[in-house]
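Researcher: Quick test of sequence recovery. C-alpha cells follow.
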C-alpha cells in the first residue's frame, strides 16, 4: 500500500510529463533546447567547480555534481518559461482565455469571469484587488469597448470611491497581450486598502445578484493554467 509521501513524487513526475507533452505541441524543439541548456550551463559550472573544489578525485566529483545540479536548474527555468508561453498559445483566441490567465494570480485578488457577454462571444471579466475594480474585455475590440463602457457605468453606481480600470486584451494599439496580462495587472498602482476590498466585494455580489440570467457564450471556457506552473515548481 503506497503512502501519500510516495505518491507525491509520482504525481509531480506525471505533471511534468504532461506539461512537456503540451509544450512540445507548439514548441517542437523543446527537447533539444533543454539538452543544450543543460550541457552548456552544466559544463560551464562543472568547469568552474573543477578549479574551485580542486583537481583531486573529491574535487572532480563535487564539480560534476555541481554541474549536473546547475544544468537541471537551468532546464527548469527555461522549461517553465517556455511551458507557460505554450500554455498561452494553446488558449489564445478562445472565449475566456483572459479569465484562465488571471486565475494564476495569487491571494489578494477576487476574480469573477464573464460578468457580461454578448451573443458574438465578446466577454468582460471582473477583477478586484488593491488597484480597485478592473474590467477586462476580450473579443472584437470595437464591440468589447462598448460592452466595457456599459459595465463601467453599472459598476460606478456602487463603487463609490473605488477606482475602475478597463483593459482590452488583444494585440492591437492600446490593448494588452494575453501573455502580458497578469504582469500588467500586477503592476497597476495600489489605490485601496484591504477593508475597502471587503466592503466592495459585498457590493459587487449584490450587483451580480440583480443581473438577469443569461446563457454563457458558445465554446468551452479555458481552465486555469496553474497546473503547468505547479509542475515547474515540483
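Model:
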Amino acid at each position: 500500500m503506497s503512502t501519500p509521501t510516495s505518491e507525491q513524487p509520482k504525481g509531480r513526475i506525471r505533471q511534468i510529463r504532461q506539461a512537456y507533452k503540451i509544450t512540445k505541441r507548439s514548441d517542437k524543439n523543446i527537447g533539444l533546447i533543454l539538452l543544450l541548456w543543460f550541457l552548456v550551463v552544466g559544463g560551464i559550472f562543472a568547469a568552474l567547480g573543477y578549479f574551485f573544489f580542486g583537481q583531486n578525485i573529491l574535487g572532480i566529483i563535487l564539480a560534476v555534481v555541481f554541474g549536473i545540479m546547475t544544468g537541471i536548474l537551468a532546464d527548469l527555468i527555461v522549461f517553465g518559461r517556455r511551458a507557460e508561453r505554450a500554455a498561452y498559445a494553446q488558449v489564445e483566441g478562445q472565449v475566456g482565455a483572459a479569465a484562465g490567465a488571471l486565475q494564476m494570480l495569487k491571494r489578494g485578488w477576487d476574480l469573477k469571469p464573464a460578468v457580461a457577454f454578448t451573443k458574438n462571444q465578446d466577454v468582460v471579466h471582473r477583477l478586484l484587488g488593491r488597484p480597485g475594480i478592473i474590467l477586462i474585455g476580450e473579443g472584437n475590440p470595437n464591440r468589447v469597448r462598448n460592452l466595457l463602457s456599459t459595465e463601467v457605468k453599472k459598476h460606478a453606481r456602487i463603487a463609490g470611491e473605488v477606482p475602475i480600470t478597463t483593459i482590452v486584451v488583444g494585440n492591437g494599439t492600446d490593448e494588452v497581450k494575453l501573455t502580458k496580462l497578469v504582469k500588467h495587472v500586477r503592476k497597476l498602482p495600489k489605490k485601496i486598502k484591504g477593508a475597502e476590498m471587503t466592503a466592495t466585494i459585498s457590493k459587487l455580489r449584490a450587483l451580480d445578484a440583480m443581473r438577469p440570467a443569461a446563457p454563457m457564450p458558445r465554446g468551452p471556457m479555458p481552465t486555469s493554467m496553474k497546473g503547468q506552473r505547479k509542475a515547474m515548481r515540483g
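The chain has two domains: 4-91, 97-218.
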